[in-house]
Amino acid sequence: MRYKLLGKSGLRVSELCLGTMTFGETWGWGASKEESKKQFDYFAEQGGNFIDTSVNYTDGTSEEFLGDFISQADREYFVVATKYTLTKPDSTDPNSGGNSRKNMMKSVERSLRRLQTEYLDILYLHMWDYMTPVEEVMRGLDDLVTAGKINYVAISDTPAYIVAEANMMAELRGWSRFIGLQVPYSLLRRDIERELIPMAHHWDMAVLPWGLLRAGVLTGKFLQPSDEPTRINRDELNLSERALNIVKEVVKVAEETGHSPAQVAINWVRQQPKAQMIPILGARTVEHLKDNMEAVDWQLSDEHWQRLDEVSAIDLGFPHGFLDANQYIFGATHDKIDNHRR
């Protein structure tokens, strides 16, 4: 395992992050505590130090399991990230979820108790609620940093214009700014390339992609009948012709390289050149985790990466392409300009 600086910070994290949404069986498809501990131990043995959870994952079981595990290990070694925003679907308390300062403070205290720690390395805003003012969010997060409850702030599942506004406000007012952006990204879901990835690159934010295998679709397992448990209802999957072509290409590249389809799909994301990528792995068993983590032992060739990129390409839309090499901007000098910002 190698390590990367997390965005615009001095924090060193492993090149893969262990996702723990599968820690706990509360939601009907996760891992037992024993199996979760095996995943935690294996990840740490391989040099992994970056672990991701949330206040709502498996209704709190994920944080509780992780708290027990890190209390038995070296807390200082691990970079623990959790999130606030979400609540239970049947909650009747209007302030039990959302981005407000009230829910932020309450959620952090709950996470600290469950995780059995005095501080959080990273706190994510989990989802934008379109209600809370940006300044309330950023001031609240900075107060938590000042109080020593959290060390860094990051954001997930939020429009690019909101993230940009928040970072600019933080820069101007001397508050802590976002260093990471957590978003869904895979060969089957590339829409974040339109705005979110360019925004993250511009602000020197690490991109922490989840859903790398699209709930297992990119492993090729849906190409054949199977009784394996899954979060996706097979009868409702109804893969498009485009999706099937992408999955078949992943399987073909896997056969040519001698590696699993999962590793092929993960490495396409890892090798994405448009931003710093630190993939989040989520597995139900330690065997699945081991296979996924072996992706760091090799890389796709330029040819294989390009084949996957082409079969999964999307139309980026306006203004992408329209602004590239535009003679009305650069005249005849475009090819003579070395632009390190692209």
Q: Stretches where pLDDT falls below 50 for ≥5 residues?
A: none
Q: Compute the number of structural domains.
A: 1
Q: Sketch the major β-sheet.
A: 8 strands, parallel
CATH class: Alpha Beta
Radius of gyration: 21 Å
Total number of strands: 10
| Number of helical stretches of at least 4 residues | 12
The assigned structural class equals alpha/beta
CATH architectural name? Alpha-Beta Barrel
- Major sheet strand order: 9-8-7-6-5-4-3-10
SS strand fraction: 5-15%
Q: Which series of helices and strands comes N to C?
A: EEEHEHEHEHEHEHEHHHEHHH
Q: Note the gap between the termini.
A: 29 Å
Instruction: Write out the CATH superfamily name.
Output: NADP-dependent oxidoreductase domain
Mean pLDDT: 94
Query: Residue share in helices?
Result: 25-40%
Enter the CATH topology name.
Answer: TIM Barrel
CA-based shape: globular
Structure characteristics:
globular; TIM Barrel; alpha/beta; two-stranded antiparallel sheet; 342 residues
Would you write up a description of this structure?
The structure is a single chain. With 342 residues, the chain is α/β, with parallel strands linked by helices. The protein contains 12 helices and 10 strands. Helix 1 runs parallel beside helix 10, helix 2 (61-71) crosses helix 3 and helix 4 (134-146) packs across helix 5. The longest helix is centred in the C-terminal third of the chain and has 17 residues, at 241-257.
Q: What's the short story on this structure?
A:
The chain is built from 12 helices and 10 strands.
Layout of strands and helices, then pairs:
Layout lengths: L2 E3 L6 E3 L2 E3 L13 H13 L4 E3 L8 H11 L7 E6 L16 H15 L4 E6 L8 H13 L3 E7 L3 H14 L4 E7 L11 H7 L3 E5 L23 H4 L3 H17 L3 H10 L9 E2 L4 H8 L8 H10 L15 H4 L12
Parallel strand pairs: 3-4, 3-10, 4-5, 5-6, 6-7, 7-8, 8-9
Antiparallel strand pairs: 1-2
Helix pairs in contact: 1-10, 2-3, 4-5, 8-9, 8-11
